[in-house]
UniProtKB/TrEMBL annotation:
Family assignment from sequence similarity: Belongs to the fabD family.
Record-linked Pfam families: Acyl_transf_1
Organism: Alteribacillus persepolensis
Keywords for the protein's UniProt record, in alphabetical order: Acyltransferase, Transferase
Example GO biological process: fatty acid biosynthetic process
UniProt xrefs under SMART domains: PKS_AT (SM00827)
Recorded catalytic activity of this chain's protein: holo-[ACP] + malonyl-CoA = malonyl-[ACP] + CoA
Record domain Malonyl-CoA:ACP transacylase (MAT): where: 6-294
Active-site residues, record numbering mapped to chain: S86, H194
The protein, known as: Malonyl CoA-acyl carrier protein transacylase
A GO CC term attached to the entry: cytosol
Database matches in Gene3D superfamilies: Malonyl-CoA ACP transacylase, ACP-binding (3.30.70.250), Malonyl-Coenzyme A Acyl Carrier Protein, domain 2 (3.40.366.10)
GO molecular function terms listed in the Swiss-Prot or TrEMBL record: [acyl-carrier-protein] S-malonyltransferase activity
EC number: 2.3.1.39
Amino acid sequence: MSIAFLCPGQGSQQPGMFEQLPDHPYVQKTLQEAEDILQTDISLFDTKAQLQSTTTVQLALFIWSMAVYRAFKSEGYTPDMAAGHSVGAFGAAVITGALAFRDALPLVQKRGEWMEKQHPSGYGMGVVTGLSYRQMTTLLEEYERDETMYLANVNADDQFTISGEVSTLESFLTAAAAEGARKAERLNVAVPSHCVLMKEVSEKMESALQTVSFSSPTIPYAGNTKPRALLNTEKMKDDLAESISHTVRWNEVMHLYYERGARLFIELSPQAVLSDLINKQSSEIRGISVSHGYEDCCLLMERYSLK
Protein backbone atom coordinates (compact mmCIF):
# COMPACT_ATOMS: atom_id res chain seq x y z
CA MET A 1 0.00 0.00 0.00
CA SER A 2 1.31 3.43 -0.97
CA ILE A 3 1.95 6.42 1.28
CA ALA A 4 1.31 10.05 0.30
CA PHE A 5 2.70 13.15 2.00
CA LEU A 6 0.42 16.21 2.05
CA CYS A 7 1.59 19.81 2.56
CA PRO A 8 -0.92 22.37 3.89
CA GLY A 9 -2.14 25.63 2.48
CA GLN A 10 -3.10 28.88 4.15
CA GLY A 11 -5.64 28.31 6.91
CA SER A 12 -3.64 25.59 8.68
CA GLN A 13 -1.50 28.10 10.59
CA GLN A 14 -1.86 28.79 14.28
CA PRO A 15 0.04 30.82 16.89
CA GLY A 16 2.87 28.88 18.50
CA MET A 17 3.03 26.37 15.66
CA PHE A 18 6.85 26.20 15.68
CA GLU A 19 6.66 24.95 19.26
CA GLN A 20 4.70 21.94 17.96
CA LEU A 21 7.59 20.80 15.78
CA PRO A 22 9.26 17.59 16.93
CA ASP A 23 12.53 17.90 18.83
CA HIS A 24 14.72 16.61 16.03
CA PRO A 25 18.14 17.70 14.69
CA TYR A 26 16.84 17.96 11.13
CA VAL A 27 14.04 20.25 12.28
CA GLN A 28 16.56 22.59 13.88
CA LYS A 29 18.79 22.36 10.82
CA THR A 30 15.91 23.36 8.55
CA LEU A 31 14.91 26.31 10.74
CA GLN A 32 18.49 27.56 10.73
CA GLU A 33 18.78 27.14 6.97
CA ALA A 34 15.54 29.11 6.50
CA GLU A 35 16.94 31.95 8.60
CA ASP A 36 20.15 31.96 6.58
CA ILE A 37 18.28 32.10 3.27
CA LEU A 38 15.78 34.76 4.33
CA GLN A 39 18.33 36.70 6.36
CA THR A 40 15.81 37.23 9.13
CA ASP A 41 14.84 35.84 12.52
CA ILE A 42 11.96 33.43 11.89
CA SER A 43 11.30 32.69 15.57
CA LEU A 44 8.47 35.24 15.60
CA PHE A 45 6.83 34.02 12.39
CA ASP A 46 4.29 32.04 14.42
CA THR A 47 3.08 34.85 16.67
CA LYS A 48 -0.53 35.99 16.38
CA ALA A 49 0.57 39.41 15.14
CA GLN A 50 2.92 38.06 12.48
CA LEU A 51 0.35 35.54 11.23
CA GLN A 52 -1.87 38.41 10.10
CA SER A 53 0.48 38.67 7.12
CA THR A 54 -0.19 36.47 4.09
CA THR A 55 3.53 36.33 3.35
CA THR A 56 4.45 35.22 6.86
CA VAL A 57 1.71 32.59 6.95
CA GLN A 58 2.85 31.03 3.69
CA LEU A 59 6.50 31.06 4.75
CA ALA A 60 5.72 29.61 8.18
CA LEU A 61 3.66 26.74 6.79
CA PHE A 62 6.22 25.92 4.11
CA ILE A 63 9.10 25.91 6.59
CA TRP A 64 7.06 23.82 9.07
CA SER A 65 6.19 21.12 6.55
CA MET A 66 9.75 20.99 5.19
CA ALA A 67 11.24 20.66 8.66
CA VAL A 68 9.03 17.66 9.41
CA TYR A 69 9.62 16.12 5.99
CA ARG A 70 13.39 16.31 6.48
CA ALA A 71 13.07 14.69 9.90
CA PHE A 72 11.06 11.82 8.42
CA LYS A 73 13.48 11.42 5.52
CA SER A 74 16.50 11.27 7.83
CA GLU A 75 14.90 8.27 9.54
CA GLY A 76 14.08 6.50 6.29
CA TYR A 77 10.41 7.46 6.00
CA THR A 78 9.68 8.62 2.46
CA PRO A 79 6.42 8.76 0.48
CA ASP A 80 5.40 7.19 -2.81
CA MET A 81 3.71 10.40 -3.93
CA ALA A 82 3.28 14.00 -2.77
CA ALA A 83 0.63 16.70 -2.98
CA GLY A 84 0.31 20.21 -1.63
CA HIS A 85 -2.76 22.35 -1.17
CA SER A 86 -2.28 25.87 -2.57
CA VAL A 87 1.12 27.16 -1.34
CA GLY A 88 1.71 23.63 -0.06
CA ALA A 89 2.38 22.67 -3.68
CA PHE A 90 5.87 24.16 -3.31
CA GLY A 91 6.50 21.77 -0.43
CA ALA A 92 5.26 18.88 -2.56
CA ALA A 93 7.64 19.93 -5.34
CA VAL A 94 10.55 19.78 -2.87
CA ILE A 95 9.47 16.34 -1.61
CA THR A 96 9.42 14.94 -5.14
CA GLY A 97 13.02 16.04 -5.59
CA ALA A 98 12.15 18.45 -8.38
CA LEU A 99 12.82 21.68 -6.48
CA ALA A 100 15.48 22.48 -3.90
CA PHE A 101 14.47 23.95 -0.54
CA ARG A 102 16.91 26.85 -1.00
CA ASP A 103 15.18 27.76 -4.28
CA ALA A 104 11.61 27.14 -3.14
CA LEU A 105 11.75 29.34 -0.03
CA PRO A 106 12.38 32.65 -1.86
CA LEU A 107 9.63 31.72 -4.35
CA VAL A 108 7.16 31.21 -1.49
CA GLN A 109 8.19 34.58 -0.07
CA LYS A 110 7.64 36.31 -3.41
CA ARG A 111 4.29 34.55 -3.82
CA GLY A 112 3.01 35.92 -0.53
CA GLU A 113 4.34 39.42 -1.14
CA TRP A 114 2.88 39.61 -4.63
CA MET A 115 -0.52 38.40 -3.44
CA GLU A 116 -0.62 40.99 -0.66
CA LYS A 117 0.37 43.83 -2.99
CA GLN A 118 -2.13 42.79 -5.67
CA HIS A 119 -5.11 43.23 -3.33
CA PRO A 120 -3.95 44.79 -0.03
CA SER A 121 -7.48 45.27 1.36
CA GLY A 122 -11.17 44.75 0.71
CA TYR A 123 -10.91 41.09 -0.33
CA GLY A 124 -10.95 37.71 1.36
CA MET A 125 -12.20 34.14 1.35
CA GLY A 126 -15.03 32.11 2.82
CA VAL A 127 -15.84 28.44 3.35
CA VAL A 128 -19.10 26.61 2.69
CA THR A 129 -19.90 23.04 3.73
CA GLY A 130 -23.03 20.98 3.28
CA LEU A 131 -23.98 21.98 -0.26
CA SER A 132 -23.43 20.03 -3.47
CA TYR A 133 -21.18 21.19 -6.28
CA ARG A 134 -24.26 21.95 -8.39
CA GLN A 135 -25.82 24.06 -5.63
CA MET A 136 -22.58 26.01 -5.23
CA THR A 137 -22.07 26.71 -8.92
CA THR A 138 -25.71 27.76 -9.30
CA LEU A 139 -25.39 30.22 -6.42
CA LEU A 140 -22.14 31.56 -7.84
CA GLU A 141 -23.43 32.21 -11.37
CA GLU A 142 -24.75 35.69 -10.66
CA TYR A 143 -21.66 36.74 -8.70
CA GLU A 144 -19.23 35.46 -11.32
CA ARG A 145 -21.06 37.42 -14.00
CA ASP A 146 -20.46 40.55 -11.94
CA GLU A 147 -16.81 39.50 -11.43
CA THR A 148 -17.06 39.87 -7.66
CA MET A 149 -16.99 36.25 -6.41
CA TYR A 150 -15.27 33.06 -7.55
CA LEU A 151 -15.02 29.38 -6.64
CA ALA A 152 -11.51 29.02 -5.19
CA ASN A 153 -11.24 25.45 -3.88
CA VAL A 154 -13.22 22.24 -4.22
CA ASN A 155 -11.95 20.49 -1.11
CA ALA A 156 -14.54 17.71 -0.81
CA ASP A 157 -17.86 16.67 -2.29
CA ASP A 158 -19.55 19.13 0.05
CA GLN A 159 -16.81 21.59 1.06
CA PHE A 160 -15.82 24.63 -0.97
CA THR A 161 -14.02 27.91 -0.53
CA ILE A 162 -14.79 31.13 -2.35
CA SER A 163 -12.80 34.30 -3.05
CA GLY A 164 -13.91 37.84 -3.70
CA GLU A 165 -14.80 41.25 -2.33
CA VAL A 166 -15.53 41.34 1.39
CA SER A 167 -18.95 42.96 0.97
CA THR A 168 -19.99 40.36 -1.59
CA LEU A 169 -18.60 37.51 0.51
CA GLU A 170 -21.01 38.31 3.32
CA SER A 171 -23.93 38.38 0.91
CA PHE A 172 -22.98 35.05 -0.64
CA LEU A 173 -22.43 33.32 2.70
CA THR A 174 -25.86 34.45 3.85
CA ALA A 175 -27.36 33.03 0.65
CA ALA A 176 -25.49 29.74 1.11
CA ALA A 177 -26.78 29.40 4.68
CA ALA A 178 -30.32 30.00 3.44
CA GLU A 179 -29.77 27.30 0.83
CA GLY A 180 -29.07 24.80 3.63
CA ALA A 181 -25.29 24.94 4.14
CA ARG A 182 -24.14 23.46 7.45
CA LYS A 183 -21.42 26.04 7.62
CA ALA A 184 -20.93 29.31 5.75
CA GLU A 185 -18.36 31.67 7.23
CA ARG A 186 -15.39 33.90 6.53
CA LEU A 187 -11.88 32.48 6.57
CA ASN A 188 -8.91 34.18 8.19
CA VAL A 189 -7.41 34.90 4.76
CA ALA A 190 -6.95 38.49 3.60
CA VAL A 191 -6.41 37.87 -0.12
CA PRO A 192 -8.68 36.43 -2.87
CA SER A 193 -6.67 33.31 -3.71
CA HIS A 194 -7.22 30.94 -6.62
CA CYS A 195 -9.24 33.14 -8.90
CA VAL A 196 -8.76 35.50 -11.83
CA LEU A 197 -8.15 38.39 -9.43
CA MET A 198 -4.67 36.91 -8.99
CA LYS A 199 -3.87 36.57 -12.69
CA GLU A 200 -0.98 39.04 -12.54
CA VAL A 201 0.58 37.12 -9.66
CA SER A 202 0.40 33.91 -11.69
CA GLU A 203 2.20 35.65 -14.53
CA LYS A 204 4.95 36.91 -12.21
CA MET A 205 5.38 33.44 -10.72
CA GLU A 206 5.56 31.89 -14.18
CA SER A 207 8.50 34.16 -15.00
CA ALA A 208 10.19 33.57 -11.64
CA LEU A 209 9.99 29.80 -12.02
CA GLN A 210 11.89 29.99 -15.29
CA THR A 211 14.91 31.35 -13.42
CA VAL A 212 15.07 28.38 -11.03
CA SER A 213 16.65 25.00 -11.74
CA PHE A 214 14.32 21.98 -11.59
CA SER A 215 15.34 18.29 -11.49
CA SER A 216 13.36 15.29 -12.67
CA PRO A 217 11.02 14.27 -9.82
CA THR A 218 11.51 10.82 -8.31
CA ILE A 219 7.86 10.46 -7.26
CA PRO A 220 4.61 11.98 -8.61
CA TYR A 221 3.51 15.53 -7.85
CA ALA A 222 -0.25 16.15 -7.93
CA GLY A 223 -1.44 19.14 -9.94
CA ASN A 224 -3.77 21.55 -8.14
CA THR A 225 -5.65 22.93 -11.13
CA LYS A 226 -5.61 19.85 -13.36
CA PRO A 227 -5.51 16.85 -11.05
CA ARG A 228 -2.87 14.70 -12.67
CA ALA A 229 0.12 12.80 -11.29
CA LEU A 230 2.91 14.87 -12.81
CA LEU A 231 6.48 13.81 -13.49
CA ASN A 232 7.21 16.51 -16.04
CA THR A 233 8.97 19.57 -14.62
CA GLU A 234 7.49 22.03 -17.12
CA LYS A 235 3.98 20.90 -16.23
CA MET A 236 4.85 21.21 -12.55
CA LYS A 237 6.00 24.79 -13.11
CA ASP A 238 2.78 25.55 -14.97
CA ASP A 239 0.73 24.23 -12.05
CA LEU A 240 2.71 26.14 -9.41
CA ALA A 241 2.00 29.37 -11.30
CA GLU A 242 -1.53 28.74 -12.59
CA SER A 243 -2.95 27.51 -9.29
CA ILE A 244 -2.58 31.01 -7.82
CA SER A 245 -5.33 32.28 -10.14
CA HIS A 246 -7.32 29.09 -10.85
CA THR A 247 -9.60 26.84 -8.81
CA VAL A 248 -7.82 24.18 -6.74
CA ARG A 249 -9.42 20.76 -7.39
CA TRP A 250 -8.24 19.16 -4.15
CA ASN A 251 -11.07 16.65 -3.95
CA GLU A 252 -10.08 15.25 -7.35
CA VAL A 253 -6.42 15.14 -6.29
CA MET A 254 -7.25 12.87 -3.36
CA HIS A 255 -9.40 10.60 -5.54
CA LEU A 256 -6.52 10.45 -8.02
CA TYR A 257 -4.04 9.30 -5.41
CA TYR A 258 -6.51 6.78 -4.02
CA GLU A 259 -6.80 5.30 -7.51
CA ARG A 260 -3.01 5.14 -7.67
CA GLY A 261 -2.91 3.05 -4.50
CA ALA A 262 -2.41 5.57 -1.71
CA ARG A 263 -3.96 4.34 1.53
CA LEU A 264 -2.04 6.32 4.15
CA PHE A 265 -1.92 10.11 3.92
CA ILE A 266 0.52 11.92 6.23
CA GLU A 267 -0.27 15.62 6.65
CA LEU A 268 2.85 17.68 7.36
CA SER A 269 0.92 20.36 9.19
CA PRO A 270 0.36 21.95 12.62
CA GLN A 271 -3.35 21.22 12.17
CA ALA A 272 -5.44 18.35 10.78
CA VAL A 273 -7.32 20.09 7.96
CA LEU A 274 -6.34 17.85 5.04
CA SER A 275 -6.28 14.59 6.98
CA ASP A 276 -9.76 15.27 8.35
CA LEU A 277 -11.01 15.65 4.78
CA ILE A 278 -9.37 12.35 3.85
CA ASN A 279 -10.87 10.45 6.76
CA LYS A 280 -14.38 11.50 5.76
CA GLN A 281 -14.01 10.04 2.27
CA SER A 282 -13.62 6.31 2.87
CA SER A 283 -12.98 3.74 5.59
CA GLU A 284 -10.34 2.17 3.33
CA ILE A 285 -7.92 5.06 3.75
CA ARG A 286 -6.26 6.69 6.73
CA GLY A 287 -5.19 10.27 7.14
CA ILE A 288 -3.13 11.53 10.07
CA SER A 289 -1.52 14.88 10.77
CA VAL A 290 1.88 15.29 12.40
CA SER A 291 0.00 17.52 14.84
CA HIS A 292 -1.46 14.30 16.27
CA GLY A 293 2.02 12.97 17.00
CA TYR A 294 5.27 12.59 15.10
CA GLU A 295 5.92 9.13 16.56
CA ASP A 296 2.39 7.99 15.72
CA CYS A 297 3.01 8.93 12.09
CA CYS A 298 6.26 6.96 12.07
CA LEU A 299 4.53 3.91 13.52
CA LEU A 300 1.76 4.04 10.93
CA MET A 301 4.25 4.39 8.08
CA GLU A 302 6.07 1.29 9.32
CA ARG A 303 2.82 -0.68 9.44
CA TYR A 304 1.65 0.41 5.99
CA SER A 305 5.06 -0.29 4.48
CA LEU A 306 4.69 -3.92 5.58
CA LYS A 307 1.23 -4.36 4.04
